[in-house]
């Protein structure tokens, strides 16, 4: 099974990626992991990416594309793979198509996890993180026993800057502008399958697996 996962921040893409990769016994490939591996290994591409990041600049598509293309040469993708966080735009999607066509390993499907913006804001803005141990709580779904205090180590809970509503709204705007066109692109080539990301994690996973049969 060769899959791409798309969806807005807060839709639970990362969680579903883990479940689906386990179900199909395929590697879960995230762009974050690829970047970290290349930078840690001081590969040519890793050093190039780091040179942009150190200057506070975005890593160009060409570098990201080359990292993904290299990752897809590894032996563990022989029976399939799941891409999470890539492609992020139509240009990257077309590059990926070219790589997979050359290797005669086309995508089986693109799963879009769909969630309304107000639900996304509720999910992300309610998150609280412990300053001491890093434990994560939620003011709606997993409240701490004592407000503002970690259940595990009694450390102070805080809201990360990227969980504040104004930042979330900006992230959603960026997603709409950059990533939503991918949905139209994959719909046009009959690869898109849309799954509601509202509900229990297990139910969403089951719906995704059913859609892929």
Provide a descriptive summary of the structure in words:
By secondary structure, the chain is α/β, with parallel strands linked by helices. Helices cover 47% and strands 15% of the residues. It contains nine helices and eight strands. It has helices at residues 13-24, 31-40, 44-53, 61-71, 90-102, 117-125, 165-178, 180-188, 201-212; strands spanning 2-6, 28-30, 81-84, 109-114, 127-130, 136-138, 157-158, 192-196. It has a five-stranded parallel β-sheet. Strand 5 and strand 6 (136-138) form a beta hairpin. Helix 6 crosses helix 7. The mean pLDDT is 93.
Key attributes of the depicted protein:
5-stranded parallel β-sheet; 213 residues; globular; alpha/beta; 8 strands
Topology:
Blueprint lengths: L1 E5 L6 H12 L3 E3 H10 L3 H10 L7 H11 L9 E4 L5 H13 L6 E6 L2 H9 L1 E4 L5 E3 L18 E2 L6 H14 L1 H9 L3 E5 L4 H12 L1
Parallel strand pairs: 1-3, 1-4, 2-3, 4-8
Antiparallel strand pairs: 5-6, 5-7
Quick take:
This protein has 213 residues and is α/β, with parallel strands linked by helices. Helix content is 47%, strand content 15%.
């Amino acid at each position: 099974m060769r899959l791409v996962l798309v969806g807005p921040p807060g839709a639970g893409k990362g969680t579903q990626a883990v479940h689906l990769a386990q179900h199909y016994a395929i590697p879960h490939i995230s762009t974050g992991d690829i970047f970290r591996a290349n930078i840690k290994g001081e590969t040519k591409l890793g050093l190039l990416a780091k040179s942009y990041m150190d200057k506070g600049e975005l890593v160009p598509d060409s570098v990201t594309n080359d990292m993904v293309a290299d990752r897809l040469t590894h032996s563990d993708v022989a029976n399939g793979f799941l891409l999470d966080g890539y492609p992020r735009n139509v240009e990257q999607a077309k590059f990926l198509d070219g790589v997979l066509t050359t290797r005669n390993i086309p995508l089986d499907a693109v799963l879009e996890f769909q969630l309304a913006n107000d639900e996304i804001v509720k999910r992300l803005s309610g998150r609280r993180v412990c300053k001491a141990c890093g434990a994560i709580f939620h003011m709606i779904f997993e409240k701490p026993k004592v407000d503002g205090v970690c259940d595990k180590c009694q450390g102070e809970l805080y809201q990360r800057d990227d969980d504040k509503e104004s930042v979330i709204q900006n992230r959603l705007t960026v997603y709409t502008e950059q990533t939503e066109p991918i949905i139209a692109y994959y719909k046009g080539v009959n690869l898109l399958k849309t799954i509601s990301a509202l509900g229990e994690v297990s139910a969403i996973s089951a719906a995704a697996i059913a859609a892929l049969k």
